[in-house]
Amino acid sequence: MKIYKLLLLALLVIFNTDQLFAHALWIETNTIGKSGQQHEIKVFYGEYVNNEKEKIEKWYSDVKEFSLWLTAPGKEKVKLNTVAKDDYFSANFTPEKEGIYFITVIHEAKDLGGTTKYEFSSIATVAVGKSSAIDLNSISNSLKVSTTAAKIHKLNTPVQLKAVLNGQPLANKHVSVFSPEGWGKEFTTDANGIINFSPIWPGRYVVEASNFTKNSGEHHGKEYKAEWQGATSSFEVVK
After folding, report:
1. Residue 80 to residue 92: CA distance in whole angstroms
2. Does domain 25-238 fall into CATH 3.40.50.1370?
3. What is the pLDDT of residues 130-160, one digit of tens each?
4. pTM above 0.85?
């Protein structure tokens, strides 16, 4: 009986860890904005590939206490006010001039998953005017993944994605792409942290990169032995 209980406990720990790894924080917003026009942002937590958007009260640990930041062209980043809805947080800003606007979030969960520390992050880009090239070095998040251009993409046309870790290309690592149709696939980045693929469904796609390292330390008074980082972004595809 004792062996059975220990086996059951081990399975529960594995299950809960897998569930946590499968969840992510992501930002949804229109890729194209207009100067002088209010722009809406939504932040979700869950499993996009399963169309699962967790209600806020079920978000892991203190993830719902994240901070959302806006970096406007030529300006320092500022914190945006967020409003809790049922299964997402909303925010807005009004672009003042042309350029690329970055919306970012990065949050270390207060609670450990077993002996692992978790960091959830996401970025979104809004292009106002003709600017479209994305400079990931403009974003302070240590792990980031995004399309290389802030634009609305088209069906059956190659989309280029880039992943970066600590200012260097995330080379030869898996990046997951999830479609609005429940399709998901892992791609492997090249030496420059790049992947290319052609979407076959319209709608919003979510991209996720992760990094797991064996590293020990103390977090909110508890010892951890590993660190997990998860980074996302999303983009739109039209016919």
Report:
1. 8
2. no
3. 878 999 988 989 999 999 999 999 999 999 9
4. yes
